[in-house]
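Tutorial, part two.
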Amino acid sequence: MSSPIPSPPPMAPRAAPEAPESPAHSALRHVRATVIFLVLAILVSGFAYPLVVTGIADVLNPSGAAGSLLKDPNGTVIGSSLIAQNTSAPYLFWSRPSLTDYETVLGASTPPGPSDPALGQLINETINYTKAAWNFSTNSSLPYWFVAPSASSIDPDLVPEAVLIQIPRVAAATNLSIAWLTGFVNAHITNPVIPYIGVAYVNVLQLDVALLPHIGK
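Running the prediction step on this input gives:
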């Protein structure tokens, strides 16, 4: 006699279908997710990342991370080694002329061309500048860097020739000899990292800061 066929187990009751999400509730979820992502992005890119990069820079290059600030003998910050200043004191070395009066917030315009009336004014300003900086009773030529503004008009660097030619004026205004000043300037020349690629230069602002203790100004 055959055994009875077992009856199938009872089926679990089907769950009631979920009600479709309303468009307003769906939009709210997307807005909330967007706001959270935006806040996280601001915290990471606006606060965490700059703090980490600044901290690393403070360890690897403390002076550069602080803005390459320069201080006078009294410890007062007087500027940045990356930005020239309008110095006209006879006992200090001068930077090259500036079309923006050494202002960092003003962009240097294109130098005037041959037909531009502003060219004559610029030439007169350059002549007056060089007359004040050098004794023209001596027959000599002036380095181009000493009479021409830089592209940014705030470049603090000059070729050594444009600094050395100022030594007679600085010596006359101080108690320092020409021989001493010559050695002082030569000691502050920065040569190219790779020979024959780039030019040697002197950071005039750094030079003046180093000179101040020797002249008691």
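The mean pLDDT is 77. In part three we will examine how such features are distributed along the chain.
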